[in-house]
Amino acid sequence: MYESLFNRQKQFYQSGKTKKLSFRIEALKQLKRSIQYYESDLLDAMKKDFNKGKAEAYLTEIGYVYNEINYSIKHIEEWAETRKVKTPVTHIGSTSKIYKEPYGVTLIIAPWNYPFNLTVAPLIGAVSAGNTAILKPSEHTPTVAGVISSIVALAFPEKYVASVEGGIDTNQDLLNLPFNYIFYTGSSQVGRIVMESAARHLTPVTLELGGKSPAIVTKNADIKLAAKRIVWGKFINAGQTCVAPDFVYVDSSVRKQLIHHMKHYTEKFYAEAFITGAYMNIVNENHFERLKELIQGNVVYGGKTRPATLTIEPTIIDNVDFSHDAMQEEVFGPILPVLQFDSLEKAILDVRDLPDPLALYVFTDKKSEAKTVIQSVPFGGGAVNDTVFHLVNPHLPFGGRGNSGMGKYHGKYSFDTFTHEKSILHQTTCVDFPFRYPNKLFGKFIKYLWK
Question: Which stretches make up the Aldehyde dehydrogenase domain (predicted)?
Fold first, then answer.
């Protein structure tokens, strides 16, 4: 169904226009102008699709994208430069260089939780690197998807960048095409389907998935500050954030103190929003019903649900163990289970037994504890004494490992993701050393050099 669009993009890429740096820079500027033109519509769409407030929408979606565009425009010439590297003595007379080459026609499949940010941020990398792109925004946020399509249509011709709306069938139709690169953000379950489809064409992929990201709080942490930063990172976007703390694992000696402060800050930050109806909705009824079933046990804060608006009050559940329903899957909603440990070594073993999470947060003022956790547990990325905030540093790569994904992006890493590094040896024609050709001395010479 989309073969014609794919072929037009392939033809446009092969024309070589997208490889010119001046073309890429102007494309990024045009993207920014188009977003600015539709900014009000975009904010209204987020409000309509899942009741996202303007301040939060700008902080987590639009402002972030502007920053990525500005950063890419500033550094793209440096990133795209051919890089000269060392050449060994065995290649005397030659030089070695790495050329930066776009992959070609790319596919970006986006999720619903940050529907604008997670559609356009990868696009910035694809355009910066000189590719064409087909975007597939999420069908679960249809109003936002419509505005994204309008932004793309204003900024680019279809043969360069296009936005395709639709559901599962659309995804499958697109995945049947021989793209040169696929960038997917979403669940691990669908990630496996994407990877299987890509394998048929040996297409490289980036998979940005999720997992149960822990917040480990030791007895040496600033407990009040830890509580403040954990509930902010957890309940922003109604908990529908891939790097939100999925559960808290706290030293038993400070558990009650942490719970006290988490309840205080949850009340302070989110109580009024929930009462007035300003708190964000769960994206659809299926997710709402799934989350509602997880609210069980010792609920020490929240727990209220509003089916009419698909809203769930920020909820903290104390005295949870690993058998609790909320610990069997990624929560991905405003429900925070709290578990306790008696030794950090045991906590590390427990977390290590879980599938590799996308993020991990450790709260401690003891550097040795933070170092032990970071070096002992496999995870994508994270923070010491904070949550989520590592996401907005363009100098840090963002991505998972194992069950939480593969590949990385943000800042230069987005450019690198959509770029093939082509290695070239430039050999001299002034001299042609005889020792490289089959002769009695050849073996002895190589053995001498490589012994």
Answer: 19-424
Which 3 state secondary structure label does DSSP give 206? Answer: strand
Closest CA to 385 of 234, 251, 218, 262: 218
Tally the residues of the chain: 451
Q: Which of 3, 81, 101, 208 is catalytic?
A: 208
CATH topology of domain 214-392: Aldehyde Dehydrogenase; Chain A, domain 2 (3.40.309)
443: pLDDT strictly greater than 70 = no
Give the class (CATH, top level) of 3-209+401-423.
Answer: alpha beta
Domain boundaries, the chain: 3-209+401-423, 214-392
Higher-confidence residue of 101 and 92: namely 101
| H-state helical runs in 61-167 | 63-80, 117-128, 142-155
Q: How many helices (H) and strands (E) does the chain have?
A: 16, 18
Query: Are 3-209+401-423 and 214-392 equal in CATH topology?
Result: no
Contact 207, 184 (CB under 8 A): yes
d(CA 129, CA 80): 8
For the question of residue 242 being annotated catalytic, the response is yes
CB of 104 closer than 8 Å to CB of 181: yes
Give 349-370 pLDDT, tens digit per residue.
999 999 999 999 999 999 999 9
Are the CB atoms for 414 and 106 separated by under 8 Å? no
Give the separation between CA 325 and CA 158, rounded to whole angstroms. Answer: 46
* Whether pLDDT at 235 is above 90: yes
Of the candidates 330, 343, 331, the residue with the CA atom closest to the CA atom of residue 295: 331
Average pLDDT score over residue span 39-59: 96
Is 430 labeled as catalytic in the residue annotation? no
The DSSP symbol for 354 reads S
Structure tokens of 181? Answer: 């690169």
Which residue among the candidates 68, 242, 313, 330 is catalytic per the annotation?
A: 242
pTM of the model: 0.95
Confidence of residue 445 (pLDDT cuts 50, 70, 90): low
Please answer whether residues 146 and 173 qualify as being in contact, where contact means their C-beta atoms are separated by less than 8 angstroms: no
Q: In whole angstroms, how far apart are CA 116 and each of 46, 158, 174, 288, 334? A: 9, 19, 20, 22, 21
pLDDT at 382: 98
- Write the single-letter amino acid at 434: P
pLDDT in tens, 288-343: 999 999 999 999 999 999 999 999 999 999 999 999 999 999 999 999 999 999 99
pLDDT at position 190: 94
CA–CA separation, 271 vs 265, rounded Å? Answer: 9
DSSP conformation class of 216: E
